[in-house]
Amino acid sequence: MRDFSNHATVRPADHDIAITDIETCVVEGNFEWNLVKVHTDAGVTGIGEAYRGGGIDELIAYTKRFLVGENPLDVERLFRRIVQEMSGHGGTTGKVVTAASGIEIALWDLAGKVYGLPVYQLLGSKYRDRIRIYCDCHAGEAYAVDDGFTEYAGDDAYQPEAYAETAAEVVNSGFTAIKFDLDMPSDIEPDPYNGRLDNAAIERKREIVAAVRDAVGDDVDLAFDCHWDYSVESGKRLARALEPYDIMWLEDVVPPEETSAQRELARSTSTPLATGENRFRVHELSELLYEHAVDIVTPDPTTCGGLAESKRIADRAEENYIPMSPHNVCSPVGTIACVHLCAAIPNADVLEYHALEVDWWDDLLVRGGPLIADGHIEVPTEPGLGIELDEDVVEEHTLGDDVGFSS
Ligand SMILES: [Mg+2]
What we know:
Elements: E1 19-28, E2 32-40, E3 45-50, H1 56-62, H2 64-67, H3 75-85, H4 95-115, H5 119-123, E4 130-137, E5 144-146, E6 149-151, H6 160-172, E7 177-181, H7 199-216, E8 221-225, H8 232-241, E9 249-251, H9 259-267, E10 273-275, H10 286-290, E11 296-297, H11 301-304, H12 306-319, H13 332-344, E12 351-353, E13 376-378, H14 391-396
Parallel strand pairs: 4-7, 4-12, 7-8, 8-9, 9-10, 10-11
Antiparallel strand pairs: 1-2, 2-3, 4-13, 5-6
């Protein structure tokens, strides 16, 4: 058996360091943000974030049995070690890869601090100084999130005018790219299971897209998310109905597992399609790219395997002339990790921001001003991720009875 614990031993003395502990903290924002800290005997600590979801902190804690004592500078070897050590219990995909993503990001932060280099430089290059952000928006007054699920007030709260009003507000605040959800409760009538959109449902969505386009003009990039709801034939009809509005992309139209269905949809329309946020590791995204079943690929670096794995996905996308726009619903920690990735890959486009309703979002970091300015985030140039957590804010918003990080 290949043994990823069997590492090379010759290194400079100041790089001969070891992991001493790994801590986690779940911060309750609009989603549950899984933060992770990796401590070392060199007195340097790395910070990372894994995608939301239950059990991630327990999986991260499990890895301590083989990561404590390891050299944290072997970032990619340790990612492979986690996948291999846990391959018999789901390690090649899903939540184990999500947990490994958070650890991997913390290891890059740690390695950058040890080497005195920003993470983008460790990843190979800096293509841009600031990253354009797209803002995920929600229309209607009754929007609420409970454990990541959207609660709707009924169709009346989601008239096209409500979308247009929100779109204008968000664009006026500086964003040049925005996204709305386009799946609605009425979509499940008359049948909640078959994924079919009737003509009235498609017409309602077309009216929403038309109203948003009209409100913000032609120069704002618009994306719309369908959350994997529809059948291939309804997806085709919807995508075709939206063709006149030149949107940036239509996201996750059909369920996520089946590349051939996605490819069939892509062949049927000139509306650009995006997908990828719930696929793991390069293995689950390659076919989408080589088959040109997607126009903009949207993996989530905090889910799919971390920054190096996301770069491997970006490489395959670039090889096929496909841009990458990372999915991101993270706290500022995971967001800044994505910012470094977007700085380091040639084919990065807009990065998601999904916390408009959390007014303390960037208070989680010690900083001089708002993290997002003019719809962009500046790429930090300090070593590692170039961020410092405000531990008081972390403690204030820790989920459950715990306060702050614990191992
Ligand atoms: Mg989405």
